[in-house]
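Quick start: load a record and inspect it. Here is Gll0260 protein:
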Amino acid sequence: MDEQQKVSADVEKAFEQGVGMIQPAEGQPAPGAQDGNAGAGVSGEELDTIVEQALDSEAPEAARSVGVRNAVEQFNALEVDDKLAVLYYLYEAMGESVTPAAPGAADIELTTAFFGEFNALTDGDTQLEAMRALVRCEDNTLGREYGKLSENNKLVIWYLLAERMGDDVIGMPDDYQLGDLGQQNLVHVKELDFEQQITFLRDVVNPMGHDPIERAV
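Running the structure step on this input writes:
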C-alpha cells in the first residue's frame, strides 16, 4: 500500500470512528505512549504544556518551517470543498489534542456572535454554503464576525464546527472522495511535528472570513 492509499484509509477511519489519523514525526513518541494509551489523544503535563504554548501566543517563526509553509501553500491551492474536508479530517484527528489548551488560550465568549449567526442556519445546504463562503473569504455578516476574532478563537470556531458535523451541522457525505491533492496535503501535515501541525492550522484558518477594521482581542 503506497502512502496516498494509506492516508486515504486513515482519513476514512478518522471520519467513521473518530480515530486519530496524524501520527507523530519519526523519532517522536506518540501522544499517550508514556502511559500505555497511545492514540487516545494528548494526556500528561508535558503534552498539555506544548499545546498551551502553541495556542497561547503568536505562532513562533521556528514553528513555521519550510514544511509548514509548503503545506500551507498546498492547502491554499485546493478546491473549496477539499479545504473543508482537510480541516474536518485534521480536527477529527487532532481535536482531543487541541482542546486541553483551548479554554485557556481563547475567549469562548467572543465566538458567541459568530455562532449566533451560524446557528440560525438550520438547513444543511445553507450551512455548507456558509462554510464555503468563510473559506472563500467572502464579505458577509458571518465572515465579518469571523474576521473580528483572534487566531486562537478561529481555531476554536473550526474545532466546534467539526465536532458538530453530522449532528446539528451538515456532515461529510458518505460517498465523498478527497482529491489527490487533498490527500497529499494530509500526508505532508502528518509528517510535521505536533507544534508545526498546530501552526499549520493557525495559518490556514486565520485568513478566512472577512477581516474588518476593528478586531476583537
